[in-house]
Design a protein that fits this description.
By secondary structure, the protein is an alpha+beta fold. Helices cover 27% and strands 27% of the residues. The protein binds flavin-adenine dinucleotide.
Length: 326
């Protein structure tokens, strides 16, 4: 394994790369928990990002890629290795197609599309985070997800830049091929949208944003929903039979329903709280730690497992726990 000093020396020769040593990752996550990364680098230039990624991998240590940190839990001990972030944020339009770089905030892309009278992603208004991670996790809300609009995704597979069609992305609910290839890095995506009056789009997005801001106040330190919802048809018959029809939406059962049934609302562990109005929302009320957060998550999973024989799956992604570097 290359020495730490040698890796930093090599990284500093890459143009347009900003490098920080012992960078607190709590600054880069909305939860505001977690320790430092040995090295944190970011750049808006693809060639510099690739050079840094290859350098990180050649160093023999761990590395991982993050976006805006709105869906991350970083361990209290931080990340031993190199954390990379691609910040290229160009957005452009050709007819009904919009192309966005992975580092653009999803909200910028939503606003850009609405302003140009392009319909298809306005229900994603208010979902925090960057475009790359939205593709990675097939982000969505209000019955729609980004997979419905993605035409192509451009990414680096560790050796070359490749282009995937929508089908090749293997999108499912909060899933894509990129979640199974954590060493691939998304650089940009093309979306196909429909024409619609900008005023109408703005109105429906505004109504959604109002509801979202009540549920997730903009200053709340959280990751949105902690657990994925469940596909009704995938549940065991004895579990399906316990779920009231009124909670089923588009063939899914909100994990919040199971969590509510096991008394999750309002649970507290230090400054880590489960919202008293939403059982699938955990937030950091001030000085919570990643350990406390994991304890609450594990407690909720075991309660649901015990009562329903069902293993909830986290939507949130972990950094610095066990071996999750790429
Ligand atoms: C208040 C709140 C509300 C939310 N509501 C919703 C919602 O309604 N619907 C929804 O779907 N999500 C929601 N989320 C979750 C979050 O917004 C999404 O998961 C978002 O897509 C994460 O983006 P990010 O840039 O912050 O990614 P990060 O949290 O930084 O990273 C998430 C994952 O993406 C990977 N990643 C990041 N960039 C790239 C890249 N360029 N290439 C490959 N992999 C990459 C990372 O490795 C990591 O595993 C909410 C979060 C919050 C805080």
């Amino acid at each position: 394994m290359r020495s730490y000093e040698e890796t930093i020396r090599r990284l500093s020769q890459i143009p347009d790369l900003s490098i920080s040593v012992a960078e607190p990752l709590s600054r880069h996550t909305r939860f505001g928990v977690g320790g430092a990364a040995d090295v944190y680098v970011e750049t808006a230039v693809e060639s510099s990002f690739i050079a840094a990624l290859l350098e990180a991998r050649a160093s023999g240590g761990d590395s991982t890629v993050i976006g805006s940190g709105t869906n991350l839990i970083v361990a209290d001990d931080g990340f031993r290795g190199i954390v990379l972030r691609f910040t290229g944020a160009d957005i452009s339009q050709t007819g009904l197609c919009v192309e966005a770089q992975a580092g653009a905030e999803l909200q910028q892309l939503v606003d850009f599309s609405i302003d140009r009278g392009l319909k298809g992603i306005e229900t994603m208004t208010g979902i925090p985070g960057a475009v790359g991670a939205a593709v990675y996790g097939n982000a969505g809300a209000y019955g729609h997800s980004i997979m419905e609009r993605v035409q192509q995704v451009r990414f680096f597979d560790g050796a070359t830049i490749r282009l995937f069609t929508n089908a090749e992305c293997e999108f499912h609910y909060r899933e894509s091929v990129f979640k199974r290839h954590k060493d691939w890095v998304i650089f940009s995506t093309n979306l196909h949208l429909d024409a619609a009056p900008a005023g109408e789009l703005r109105e429906s997005a505004g109504a959604i944003l109002k509801i979202r801001n009540e549920k997730y106040p903009p200053t709340m330190k959280c990751a949105g929903s902690i657990f994925k919802n469940l596909i009704l048809a995938d549940l065991a018959l004895n579990v399906q039979s316990q779920v009231p029809a009124r909670v089923i939406r588009e063939g899914k059962v909100p994990s919040a329903w199971f969590l509510e049934e096991v008394g999750a609302k309002g649970i507290k562990n230090g400054d880590i709280h489960v919202a008293d109005y939403h059982a699938n929302l955990i937030f950091n009320a001030g000085n919570g730690t990643a350990r406390q957060l994991r304890e609450v998550i594990d407690d909720l999973k075991s309660r649901v497992d015990h009562r329903f024989g069902l293993l909830l799956e986290e939507e949130v992604q972990y950094v610095g726990f066990e071996s999750n570097g790429s």
